[in-house]
Design goal:
Length: 215
């Protein structure tokens, strides 16, 4: 799985916000508090579940995984695959094939990366407060983001932010191709231990690995 396929994630249905929508101060205050929470951390980790649905194609798939994030870097493990991004390079390791694909990290990608979830609203998106709701027994604020660029393949993103600690409980991404992605965050871990090798692929640990360099 490439970073792009995960981020289709990428981190949700075809109803957009009203055309006249402007930045919502209430939503902005919640998003700023959420962003400050994450940016104050050296790193964070979590377990998550991802659901892909496409009602017209009668598709529904569920996957689960683990993620570590530090700034623009992340290390994702999901479904027998690993995606490692050090901010400049992305390694996608396919365990069953013992193959790693190497590509330049795309900072301008329209898809949402795990390291963008808490800052993406700051550029290129309008945001609006939807409602307060209960989700799994937790009080959450629901906020919708819509891209200002109409060529963006994302129609909208719906964030659920926990009221008790300003962390993201889940997000949904709706795409023009009909795909809907839902990400539920579980077991959030602030400042987990990380090392210099956390966000780099080590060939020595994968004997006989096939390297496909796409740069």
């Amino acid at each position: 799985m490439t970073t792009k396929s995960f981020l289709l994630l990428t981190l949700a249905a075809t109803l957009a916000l009203p055309a006249a929508a402007q930045q919502d101060p209430k939503a902005g205050k919640i998003l700023d508090a959420m962003s400050a929470k994450y940016q104050a951390l050296n790193a964070f980790g979590a377990n998550f579940t991802q659901t892909l649905e496409n009602p017209s194609a009668k598709v529904k798939q569920n996957m689960s995984g683990d993620i570590l994030v530090s700034g623009k870097k992340f290390h994702l493990k999901m479904n027998g695959q690993e995606v490692i991004n050090d901010g400049k390079t992305t390694w996608t390791y396919l365990k069953n094939e013992n193959e790693v694909n190497i590509a330049d990290a795309d900072a301008d990608s329209q898809d949402m990366s795990p390291s963008q979830i808490y800052t993406m609203y700051k550029k290129g998106y309008k945001y609006a407060y939807v409602q307060q709701a209960q989700d799994g027994g937790e009080a959450v604020d629901v906020i919708e983001l819509t891209p200002e660029n109409r060529t963006n393949e994302v129609i909208k993103v719906r964030l659920k932010v926990r009221k008790k600690d300003q962390t993201v409980k889940s997000w949904q991404m709706y795409k023009k191709n009909g795909n809907q992605y839902t990400f539920n965050i579980k077991n959030f871990k602030p400042n987990p231990p990380i090392t210099a090798s956390t966000f780099a692929f080590d060939k020595a640990e994968h004997k006989g690995v096939k390297v496909v360099d796409l740069r």
